[in-house]
Amino acid sequence: MFENIRDDWKSHDRQWNRHGFWVLVIYRFGRWRYGIKPRALRVPFSFAYKVMKFWSEMLLQVELPCEAVIGRGLVIEHIGGIIISGDAVLGDDCTLRNGVTIGLRRKGTRGSPRIGNRVDIGTGAKILGEIVIGDDVAIGANAVVLTDIPSGSIAVGIPATIRPMKGGRA
């Protein structure tokens, strides 16, 4: 847990006052508590996590359940209105901005996006359904992504159209 928090702190420019950093601290704590085997010891940590998560959602407006799988180096650039489904998977070195939704396409159906490494997700983007986003992808502001995106691409528009990236990485 502490190694991941140290990485998150570095990703947020070593600034303890970045809101995205604190969202990730609460997320990492929530994941860590699952490793406590005796139920009697885990219960107070679970209670503390639920209180911190509640306040995080209220004050920072970021819904990031500890059931989601988040890689190293996630940067939450701007907080507010970010929703990540509990079964979503995000790779390493991804960037999220405000208003991003990563989740289910329809209520009552399982299957959230699997997002690769070094994916840059613009403000207001919606990534929905059981889809795969490749590595080194840029998703434009307000894009609605409903299909797989291959590595090294850009997705823009509603619904998102996919274009190859010019000049390399996102």
From TrEMBL:
Gene3D superfamilies: Hexapeptide repeat proteins (2.160.10.10). One of its GO terms (molecular function) is serine O-acetyltransferase activity. SUPFAM superfamilies: Trimeric LpxA-like enzymes (SSF51161). Keywords: Acyltransferase, Repeat, Transferase. GO terms for biological process: cysteine biosynthetic process from serine. Coiled coil: none annotated. Its EC number is 2.3.1.30. It catalyses: L-serine + acetyl-CoA = O-acetyl-L-serine + CoA. GO terms for cellular component: cytoplasm. PROSITE patterns: HEXAPEP_TRANSFERASES. It comes from the Bacteria. Belongs to the transferase hexapeptide repeat family. This is Serine acetyltransferase.
